[in-house]
Write a structure and sequence with these properties.
Helix content is 49%, strand content 11%. It contains 15 helices and eight strands. The strands form three sheets. It has a three-stranded antiparallel β-sheet, with helices on one face. A three-stranded antiparallel β-sheet has the order 4-5-6.
């Protein structure tokens, strides 16, 4: 009978080694290159079975055991599917961006030999280089790769199961009504000098006065804007459906309604019929059309308005809408519907009810 040896060098674990008597009668020892005792045991059983059938001991390595983390990730991104993913191509693209820093660190390492100690060292390196939330997202993405590999029986364990992730940092960023006015004033001043900046001015209003996500702003079409009834139908994002996958109606406040009426006269016609064309190009034959897939940066606009630049400049507008809505007397339940949240707990995060506002509301209490 063969045996399995736990080989150490001082206090450092080297690996599981196999001892067995091969078909030629010689006693041999081989590194199993397996991450767990159970896998090493399974390999030894396979070797003994081969010897019994008259074959030389060590079998060809299983393809799954030789995959690098980069190769495993590529396979995950090409094969993984879920009913919750509406646009697989877009999802895979985002995952590649999130995983890129991780793969730069460990992409060439073999997935089968990547254990909890490797995962902890990776976490520590990422935390030294990136903000806690970024490192947390990167580790979670890689953990999903290993979890999928376990379900596919490509790996026996997920090294991230017991590894403590960086603590999630709460980023509460929203504008006061004064800051919102400053931002719009600067945008309007730039729009008066440059016609292309007018797109940015209307996009800002859609974020601040209707709470649309950036993708929803640049995916909004004129056919979804009812200026007579004063209602927006948020039916799609820029390149896909809305985040929830469900269309929602958002009443248009007067300040936004007047701006949209004026902008409709000036807005360049595009093939897509969008309210906020991105980078525009005018040719003699085809007229105006969208040539860019990137939303414009807001950093310079915040800086010009003298407002600290938030970590997510566009999403800050949506948070500001929610905060100002609640502070103006709007209900959380109504806000949930306007923002398109399926869970009211998410809406509570957007409401930003601080102590001063809570104290002001309590003073209204009468018995």
């Amino acid at each position: 009978m063969g045996e399995i040896i736990k080989k150490m060098k001082g206090e450092r674990f080297i690996g599981w080694y196999l001892r067995f008597v091969d078909i030629d009668g010689k006693r041999k020892q081989r590194a199993s290159r397996q991450p767990t005792f159970a896998q090493a045991r399974r390999m030894l059983i396979e070797i003994e079975a081969r010897i019994a059938r008259g074959k030389l001991g060590v079998p060809e390595p299983d393809v799954a055991m030789t995959l690098t983390i980069a190769e495993l990730t590529a396979r995950f991104l090409s094969e993984y599917d879920s009913p919750r993913i509406r646009d697989v191509t877009s999802w895979a693209h985002k995952q590649r961006i999130i995983l890129r820093p991780v793969l730069d660190e460990v992409g060439t390492e073999r997935a089968a030999s990547f254990d909890a100690s490797h995962a902890e060292r990776l976490r520590n390196r990422l935390m030294r280089r990136y903000a806690a939330n970024s490192a947390r997202g990167q580790l979670s993405a890689l953990a999903s790769v290993f979890a999928w590999a376990m379900k596919k029986r490509l790996l026996a364990s997920n090294p991230f199961v017991d590894v403590k992730k960086p603590k999630k940092e709460s980023r509460i960023e929203y504008l006061t009504s004064e800051d919102a006015r400053k931002l719009l004033t600067v945008a309007d001043e730039q729009a008066a000098q440059n016609r292309r900046c007018a797109v940015l001015a209307i996009a800002l209003r859609l974020g601040l006065l209707s709470g649309l996500r950036a993708g929803e702003i640049f995916g909004l079409r004129w056919q979804d804007v009812d200026l007579q009834r004063g209602v927006l139908t948020v039916a799609k994002s820029y390149r896909s459906q809305t985040k929830s996958g469900i269309a929602r109606s958002v009443p248009i406040p007067d300040a936004l309604l007047f701006a949209l009426r004026d902008w409709k006269v000036l807005c360049p016609a595009t093939k897509e019929g969008v309210v906020c064309p991105l980078s525009l190009d005018k040719t003699a034959r085809s007229g105006w059309h969208q040539t860019s897939r990137r939303r414009p940066e807001l950093t310079a606009l915040y800086r010009a308005a003298g407002i600290p630049i938030p970590s997510a400049p566009w999403h800050c507008l949506r948070h500001s809408y929610a905060s100002l809505f609640v502070q103006s007397g709007g209900s959380i339940v109504t806000l949930q519907k306007l923002l398109g949240h399926s869970d009211i707990k998410t809406t509570m995060v957007y409401a930003h009810i601080d102590d001063s506002f809570a104290a002001q509301e309590v003073r209204k209490l009468k018995i």
